[in-house]
Amino acid sequence: MSSTVRTAIVTGAARGIGAAVAKRLAQDGLQVAVLDLDADACADTVSAIEAAGGKALAVGANVADEESVAAAVEKVATELGEPTVLINNAGITRDNLLFKMTVDEWDSVMAVHLRGAFLMSRATQKYMVDNKFGRIVNLSSTSAQGNRGQVNYSAAKAGMQGFTKTLSIELGKFGVTANAIAPGFIETEMTAATAERVGVPFEDYKKAAAAQIPVARVGKPEDIAHTASFLASEGAGFVSGQVIYVAGGPKD
User: Fold this and answer.
1) How far apart are CA 163 and CA 71, in angstroms?
2) Rounded distance between C-alpha atoms, residue 168 and residue 177, angstroms
3) Hey, which end of the chain has fewer CB within 10 Å, N or C?
4) Do residues 30 and 233 make contact, with C-beta atoms less than 8 angstroms apart?
């Protein structure tokens, strides 16, 4: 293991999966930039990391905006350290059936997931290449295989997988790996909002989901954080271009 203190950026880290990943990476000894649309929303995640003895920085940025991303990454490099670990977790849902989906619902999902991952990866890769070490972990989803009412989200998450594989090809010779995590049902504010939208109590929604999962429970944000921890580690240097389904069992 290297004694180098590395710096990670986790997008969408104010809550949910992003917050869990940020805390876990800090536990692993990394300095963590907690990035979300509003820096103030990152306060709880930053406080939790600092209370546990870690070092974190709250950063506000719109990952879909080129100038905002450039400014955010520069801030991290200047105030925390050159980022050589990137977790592209930021995401939104705008669910609707195809015939009712608006162009804005399509574009906004594509912008945050795909444009955001592209801009963040492009802005940080120079630090990874210069340091001859880099870890990019992109959040995909089991919805990449198709999911009713999520033609935009499914397309974005499938695109994330192709994006990941191409990054691994282009950046591998510089010591930079790229992998994707495809979660199944994870208990977060986002899935709670989906349950509310379809008019089902969240506990009933989770119970129905768990009945379809081989390990007989829904996932927790920490389940994803454990996987991200490995993929971001020194020891994962020979793992690249992979899509790892973290879904409690096999997918069809």
Assistant:
1) 23
2) 6
3) C
4) no
CA dihedral 158, 163, 166, 170 (to 10 degrees): -170
What tokens appear for 121 in the block?
Answer: 């990866």
Query: For each of the chain's 252 residues, which pLDDT tens digit applies?
Result: 456 899 999 999 999 999 999 999 999 999 999 999 999 999 999 999 999 999 999 999 999 999 999 999 999 999 999 999 999 999 999 999 999 999 999 999 999 999 999 999 999 999 999 999 999 999 999 999 999 999 999 999 999 999 999 999 999 999 999 999 999 999 998 899 889 988 999 999 999 999 999 999 999 999 999 999 999 999 999 999 999 999 999 865
Report pTM.
Answer: 0.96
Active site residue 127: no
Relative to beta strand 243-246, strand 176-183 is parallel
Residue of 127, 153, 205, 245 marked active site: 153
